[in-house]
Amino acid sequence: MKQEPVDLQEGAEAPVFEAPNSEGRLFRLQDCRGRWVVLYFYPRDHTPGCTREACEFRDSYAAFQQEEAVVVGVSTDSVESHARFAARQQLPFVLVADPDRAVVRQYGVWGPKRFMGRLLEGTIRSTFLIDPHGRIRRIWRHVRPAGHAAEVLKELRRLRTGAEPARSLRPPSQTRQTRNASAVGTRPSPKPKARKQP
């Protein structure tokens, strides 16, 4: 029976799962409760785009730790492939092996995509930012590897500080400008000075 596609939305509870990591140990998402989780899905170990993405998360790893976040990479590669990839690129974070495609289907990131002009099924590069309560706060789909780690880190910091995104700050400033302009336009003109008597 064909499974119905999953369409997770921001604000939904992150599906829990358990799967082996690159060391062969069981990783359980629910064990990360109380911390932020950067859960990123990528197509395949050792490929140029996936290597670049992993290395950018590696280079930003200390900054993610300062924000009390866990970085977790997931692909359909085997534990052995993950072990080689992590060792070769010196990755300090968890890589989860999902060869039976259970986790990628849970998160709705397995499906048709175009690669080198061909339409095929595979992992759609995506990232889910999960808060300490287990809720999905931000989703990136069809990710471009270059600069993505920095983008996720920026959003994590914004959410942790409770700052509003720049686009939501524009209307109030525009309103203030309009109000100020209106005030200038309605300011009473000064009274003419009385002429001195000769």
Describe the structure.
- The protein has 198 residues and is α/β, with parallel strands linked by helices.
- It is built from six helices and nine strands, in the order βββααβαβαββββαα.
- It has helices at residues 48-59, 61-66, 79-89, 102-106, 148-161, 166-185, and strands at residues 18-20, 26-28, 36-41, 69-75, 94-97, 110-115, 118-123, 126-130, 136-141.
- The protein is globular, with a radius of gyration of 25 Å.
- The chain starts with 17 loop residues before the first strand and ends in a 13-residue tail after the last helix.
Would you summarize the structure shown here?
With 198 residues, the protein is of the alpha/beta class. The chain has helices spanning 48-59, 61-66, 79-89, 102-106, 148-161, 166-185; strands at residues 18-20, 26-28, 36-41, 69-75, 94-97, 110-115, 118-123, 126-130, 136-141.
Range of helix content:
25-40%
Strand-pairing-aware structural class: alpha/beta
How many domain modules? 1
Question: For the report, how would you describe the main beta sheet?
Answer: 5 strands, mixed
Strand content: 15-25%
* Structural shape: globular
Task: Name the strands of the widest sheet in spatial order.
Answer: 5-4-3-8-9
CATH homologous superfamily identity: Glutaredoxin
Q: What is the subunit arrangement here?
A: single chain
Predict the CATH topology: Glutaredoxin
Stretches where pLDDT is under 50 for at least 5 consecutive residues are 166-189
Mean pLDDT: 86
* Total count of strands: 9
SS field, number of helical segments: 6
Straight-line distance between termini: 106 Å
Second rung of CATH, namely the architecture: 3-Layer(aba) Sandwich
Q: Report the radius of gyration as a whole number of Å.
A: 25 Å
Give me the strand/helix succession.
EEEHHEHEHEEEEHH
